[in-house]
Design brief:
It is built from eleven helices and 14 strands. It has 314 residues and is α/β, with parallel strands linked by helices. The chain has three domains: 3-72, Orthogonal Bundle (Arc Repressor Mutant, subunit A), CATH 1.10.10.10; 84-163 and 272-312, D-Maltodextrin-Binding Protein, domain 2 (3-Layer(aba) Sandwich), CATH 3.40.190; 166-268, D-Maltodextrin-Binding Protein, domain 2 (3-Layer(aba) Sandwich), CATH 3.40.190. Strands 4-3-5-13-6-14 form a six-stranded mixed beta sheet, sandwiched between helices. The termini are far apart. GO terms for molecular function: DNA binding; DNA-binding transcription factor activity.
């Protein structure tokens, strides 16, 4: 198996046809077809379904595609690591952000990276935390912002901030345009009596909420499970239920007054936001620079109170 075969296969899948991939790769289509056939013969499986409309990955092809992407990224990172200058880091760095964090961190980080490291191409990917963990393990991304749920032992982790979770609901019609940050608090027992719109178990804030509720002897009775922040917000605005989330993902709605948030007490709920890297795959100079930058930007946002509900950790 050769690296060029991996590049050819990824290009074919990305472009959906052999002919388009051949043009992009500057290789004759018969030669590309031969390389694909040799790869399938070596693996002993069919990777692609071919038709007049193009190609589709088989189940085996989908699995191989993920591994091929990870291998090619690690090769590119290895090449970059031995050629780039530590004083002027350059190259591509991929950082994974959970949906509920990107609203607070993504834009300030992109702005800071562009100003301080113009030769680094920072790629941000937004996913649910389970997907980010798998991508980090496989080497498809360099860094990921995750939540400390006690299951991060396989990663090199650095604590960033402690983030408060709040009870968030739609504002009554007569309150539209009012300040959505309510000083009125409620207990966790009162919060779980509502219909709650939350991520599915093991995703996002849900494990933390379930854990704190269980320790308090409470259970979530009425839950609508939605893993998309955008859909979750639409459901709240449609008065289908409330949620327990950090304030950052709904900051615009809180400012407009279409939503309001209340502090949860007895007990309070918070989560530790951490920056993770693989223990097995070394960081390039560029990735190490971005790792430090994420820490700095997070601290700056907290100091300037631009990350609602977050406080700095040592």
């Amino acid at each position: 198996m050769e690296l060029r075969q991996l590049r050819y296969f990824v290009a074919i899948v990305d472009h959906g046809s052999l002919s388009k991939a051949a043009v992009v790769l500057h290789i004759a289509q018969p030669a590309l077809t031969q390389q694909l056939r040799q790869l399938e013969d070596e693996l002993g499986v069919q990777l692609l379904h071919r038709s007049a409309q193009g190609v589709l990955s088989t189940d085996a092809g989908k699995v191989f595609y993920e591994h091929a992407q990870a291998i090619l990224k690690q090769v590119a990172d290895a090449r970059s690591a031995v050629t780039q200058c530590s004083e002027r880091p350059s190259g591509v760095v991929t950082l994974g952000l959970p949906h509920s964090i990107s609203g607070a961190l993504a834009l300030p980080l992109l702005t800071a990276a562009r100003a301080q490291y113009p030769e680094i191409t920072l790629q941000l990917t937004e996913e649910i935390t389970g997907n980010l963990s798998e991508q980090l393990k496989s080497g498809r991304i360099n860094l990921a912002v995750l939540f400390d749920d006690g299951q991060l032992g396989g990663f090199a982790s650095t604590a960033l901030v402690e983030e408060e979770l709040r009870f968030i609901c739609a504002s009554p019609a007569q309150e539209d345009g009012a300040d959505g940050d309510s000083e009125q608090s409620l207990t966790l027992a009162e919060a779980v009596q509502h219909t709650l719109i939350l991520p599915s178990p093991l995703q996002g804030v849900r494990p933390r909420i379930d854990s704190v509720a269980h320790q308090a002897g409470l259970s979530l009775q009425h839950v609508i499970e939605i893993n998309s922040i955008a859909i979750l917000k639409s459901a709240i605005l449609a008065h289908l239920g409330a949620t327990i989330l950090p304030a950052a993902p709904v900051l615009d709605e809180l400012k407009r007054g279409s939503m309001r948030s209340r502090r949860i007490e007895q007990p309070t709920i918070s989560r530790t936001v951490v920056l993770c890297a693989s223990r097995n795959i070394p960081l390039t100079n560029a990735a190490e620079a971005i790792r430090k930058l994420v820490q700095h930007v997070s601290q700056q946002l907290c100091a300037e109170q631009l990350w609602p509900g977050a406080r700095m950790l040592p």
